[in-house]
Amino acid sequence: MNSQAVAAAVSAATSHVEHTERATRPPLQRTTVGMISLGCAKNLVDAEIMLGSVLQRGMEITSRPEDADVVVVNTCGFIDSAKEESIEAILEAHQQRGLNRRPHQRLIVSGCMSQRFARELRKELPEVDAFIGLDQVTELGRIIEELLGKHSTRNVQRPTPNGENDEADLAFADTRPTYIPDYDTPRFRLTPAHFGYVKIAEGCNHPCSFCVIPQMRGKHRSRPPESVLAEIRALVRDGVREINLISQDTTYYGMDLWSRKAGPRQPIDSTRGSTLAALLREIQQIEGEFWVRLLYTHPAHWSDELIETIAQCDKVARYVDIPLQHIDDSVLRRMLRETSRAHIENVIHKLRAGIPSLTLRTTFIVGFPGETDAEFANLLEFIRRTRFERLGIFKYSQEGGSRAAKMPGQISAKIKNARYRAAMSVQQQSNSFGAGSLAAAATICWLRGRSIFPRVLKLASDKPTIFDQLIPRLICFPHGKPKRAK
């Protein structure tokens, strides 16, 4: 979505919003903050860090957005539908402060969309008081203090006392991010008590032609192993039983710290420095009853060492999330995936042979520019033959700023929809996760939740978002009744 598309989406969404601003600000009290967090688990961790900074500055987190002094919308900017959802959430938050007679309530936008489109959105969304970037997640408390220290601004359609425009002061998202969290970064966990996410790295070095995440989140930056281990120990002490290791590319963890630069196809090799395999061996030594789960692994970096490490470590769930995106060699080359069909098939064979009772989860993209009927047929044949335990299909989204957006042969929505339905149908027919494999994968643990579920039975083959089937996506107000986000 380019700047013109952002403007068009904002214009379309704004037509459904009526602005009502009246009444006066109530007497000053302790600052209260509410947050709406959209998007992936990595964005959720950013939300937890932002709320941690709020609490550190002596503010309160409220379950009632109508009572909040500040509402933060933590946006997703991955694909067009996510951007549209984010814009709608922003405008709805602004509408609610009018309906609730809170014209002085401040509205802050954070997250990937804010990072990428801060300048464009600032012009199209004068309702927003500040846009903050990914490097500012630890500074939300300070930014709120600064924002509340001002009087009404142009963003709430009122002049400042001296008549000057505060626009320059209200946009903090300007540069490519470099921040990575540390173990002692204040956080307010928003997950159920029994599981949590640990972001082991930020950014991505892969040049995938369909993706703009490196433009939004910067180059790959690994946390030091000691920082990750300290955070995991703290979570285990706090009663967490499932720890999900996440980043844009989990298998590249540590390689950016090597003295000799690792290439984009470098397999994991602990003789050269820090790696995910070495980290898992250290995690295995942590005392307590828990497991860790690997999400967002890239097929280019899998090695015999990593497979053997997972097989030897009983605290690593027999579950691997490995987005493949396609299997046809021609499509993989156009996607700049740095893998081939032969490499992918070899990795899958080694994974299943080396790790008993393994659950494989993957995702594919259909309707990529130039995808022919024959190339799509190759994908269907591969899904049918490989029989993934878990599989998701994405319809290609033409992302402005990506290489693929300018490629010839863009596929129509009608064909994308048809291919999506066909791929999902094949998966449903060939899914091997039946009664037999369920018995084989029945490594389970009792997870004692302190808030939403008093007791949860979970399989190692269940991804974290299995809870999305039971809990609608929540507006991240930790107290009071959960609210369903639209």
Describe the 3D structure.
The chain is of the alpha/beta class and 486 residues long. The protein folds into two domains: 3-170, Rossmann fold, CATH 3.40.50.12160; 195-444, tm_1862 like domain (pyruvate-formate lyase- activating enzyme, Alpha-Beta Horseshoe), CATH 3.80.30.20. Helices cover 34% and strands 14% of the residues. It contains 14 helices and 15 strands. The strands form four sheets. A six-stranded parallel beta sheet has the order 6-9-10-11-12-13, sandwiched between helices. A five-stranded parallel beta sheet has the order 2-1-3-4-5, with helices on both faces. The longest helix is centred in the first third of the chain and has 20 residues, at 80-99. The protein is globular and about 60 Å long. The protein starts with a helix and ends in a 27-residue tail after the last strand. The relative contact order is 0.10. Mean pLDDT is 83; it is low at 14-27, 151-171, 432-456 and 466-486.
**Beta-strand fraction estimate:** 5-15%
CATH homologous superfamily name of the largest domain?
Answer: tm_1862 like domain
Q: Considering DSSP H and I runs of 4 or more, what fraction of the residues is helical?
A: 25-40%
Shape: globular
Regarding quaternary structure, how should these chains be classified?
Answer: single chain
Short note summarizing the structure:
By secondary structure, the protein is α/β, with parallel strands linked by helices. Helix content is 34%, strand content 14%.
